[in-house]
Amino acid sequence: MKTSVPDVRFWAEQGGLLLRGAREAASLNQAELADACGTSRTTLSAYEHGRKSPTLETAGRILDAAGFRLALEPKVEFTAHPDGFWVPDRLPRLRVEVALGRAEFPAGHWWNLADRADRQAAYSAVLCDGSPGDITRCVDGVLLAELWAELSLPPPVQAAWEPLMGHGEAWEPPPAAGGGGPPGPRSSSGRTRPERTT
């Protein structure tokens, strides 16, 4: 199953969100960041709103001036399990402040992920009932592996996720009879986010 590639406008908008997020995290206005990286405020505004796309060198210079660096992170692909939950092809990773912050799942229910008992309950709920977006937003792979033996999961969920913990064989969707079956791999947001430099 071939997935469609987002158009140029999509990537320009995603890049704009990345640059604006870095600027806001650095508590800079457009004029301050533009001055620090050697571009004009109007050009930076055009980048942030997706009207123009900077070169990779220019994007790196802007992020550097905001105190960030451009980094690659693996894209996490998801497959629907026949029992109605999602299984990634690798464990997602979160920034520390997100991994130990507050997470909402389901809507209206907040978990304190810094609290081990709350994180254990949240991870159990998200692995059983969460969407790919919920998993990549709430679950950190290292913290999940550390809690794995303590989670209360239905046997199919545990069996499907077990290989990601370094145990057992990877879960594969059953072969489709007549072209049906579960949908193919799904991707999380796939966004490249800036990493804070120290």
Automatic annotation (TrEMBL):
- What Gene3D superfamilies does this protein map onto? lambda repressor-like DNA-binding domains
Domain of life (superkingdom): Bacteria
Where in this protein does the record put region Disordered?
A: 166-198
InterPro entries named in the record: Cro/C1-type_HTH (IPR001387), Lambda_DNA-bd_dom_sf (IPR010982)
**CDD domains, alphabetically?**
HTH_XRE
Q: Which residues form the HTH cro/C1-type domain?
A: 19-65
Q: Name it.
A: HTH cro/C1-type domain-containing protein
* Organism of derivation: Nonomuraea longicatena
Ranked from the top, the taxonomy reads:
Bacteria, Bacillati, Actinomycetota, Actinomycetes, Streptosporangiales
